[in-house]
């Protein structure tokens, strides 16, 4: 499957999750997302979506917020999406994005997340076609249970 992977603020190209996806046999497109410019990061993600037939978007933390900005009907797996920080302080903007989104969304989020509160992801459950898996040891979501949940989420949406 062709996957657009959008990494988080403290992550970089070639991290644990995209490497895991490649090991599963997926074709992973992973742009470098400049930490100092959200708009340039959105542009980088859109450029891949316009040039490649992406089948699924996976966004982690800040990458989850970018995914929400560029989704345009694609199915998505969001990993502890930091949408409140980058899209808006309230849920209204995020809900508008999600309600206009025709694809399905699975959110994976750890109860022990020390960066993005689980309640932020729970608030998105009021949108159609959104489900939530509470899994993982921390915000990084690179422990075996979190990676298994990522694999299962992709299988469900692929």
In short:
By secondary structure, the protein is an alpha/beta fold.
List the SSEs and their pairings.
Blueprint: E1 2-6, H1 16-23, E2 27-29, H2 38-51, E3 56-60, H3 62-70, E4 76-79, H4 83-86, H5 92-99, E5 105-109, H6 118-123, E6 130-134, H7 144-157
Parallel strand pairs: 1-2, 1-3, 3-4, 4-5, 5-6
Task: Walk me through the structure.
The chain is α/β, with parallel strands linked by helices. The protein has a single domain, classed as Rossmann fold. 40% of the residues lie in helices and 17% in strands. The chain has a six-stranded parallel sheet, with helices on both faces. Strand 3 (56-60), helix 3 (62-70) and strand 4 form a beta-alpha-beta unit. Helix 2 (38-51) crosses helix 3 (62-70). The radius of gyration is 14 Å and the shape is globular. The mean pLDDT is 91.
What is the 3D shape?
globular
**CATH level-1 class:** Alpha Beta
The CATH topology turns out to be Rossmann fold
Element order, helices and strands? EHEHEHEHHEHEH
């Amino acid at each position: 499957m062709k996957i657009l992977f959008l990494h988080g603020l403290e992550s970089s190209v070639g991290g644990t999750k995209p490497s895991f996806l490649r090991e599963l046999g997926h074709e992973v497109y992973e742009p470098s997302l400049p930490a100092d410019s959200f708009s340039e990061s959105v542009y980088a993600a859109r450029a891949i979506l316009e040039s490649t037939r992406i089948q699924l978007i996976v966004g982690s933390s800040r990458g989850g917020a970018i995914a929400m900005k560029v989704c345009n009907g694609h199915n998505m797996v969001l990993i502890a999406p930091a949408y409140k920080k980058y899209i808006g302080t309230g849920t209204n903007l995020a809900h508008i994005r999600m309600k206009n989104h025709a694809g399905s969304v699975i959110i994976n989020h750890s109860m022990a997340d020390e960066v993005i509160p689980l309640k932020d992801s729970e608030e998105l459950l009021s949108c159609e076609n959104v489900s939530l898996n509470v899994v993982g040891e921390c915000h990084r979501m690179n422990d075996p249970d979190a990676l298994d949940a990522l694999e299962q989420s992709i299988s469900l949406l692929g």
